[in-house]
Amino acid sequence: TFNGVPTPMSSVSYPTEFTTQCDVNGCVARMDKRDDQARNPAEPLEFEYRWNSGRWETTGQQPYLCKRTDTTSGVSSTRSDYWIP
Question: Does residue 8 sit within a domain?
Fold first, then answer.
C-alpha cells in the first residue's frame, strides 16, 4: 500500500543472490539489489534481513515509484517485507 491505498502487483518468484553472516548478535542476510538500479536508481544497493521469530525480516527507506516505469516519479517511503523459509 501507499498512503493507505492498495497498489497490488502479481506475485513473482525469481532466484536472488544473498549472503548470510551470523555472530553472537544473531544472523543477517544481505540481498544484492544492484540489478534493480536501472529500474529505480535511488533504491538501496542491498537489503539487510534479520532472523526474527522463524522468518527473515527487513525494513528500510526506499523510494516508491508512483508510476512503476517512471524513475522520476519516486517519493520517500519505508518498505518492509519478510521471507519464510
Answer: no
Total domains in the fold of the chain: 1
The answer on pLDDT for 57 being more than 90 is yes
Residue 29 has a pLDDT of 94
| pLDDT at residue number 1 | 61
Task: List the domain range (segments joined by +) for residue 45.
Answer: 18-83
pTM here is 0.69
Residue labelled with grid coordinates 502479481: 10
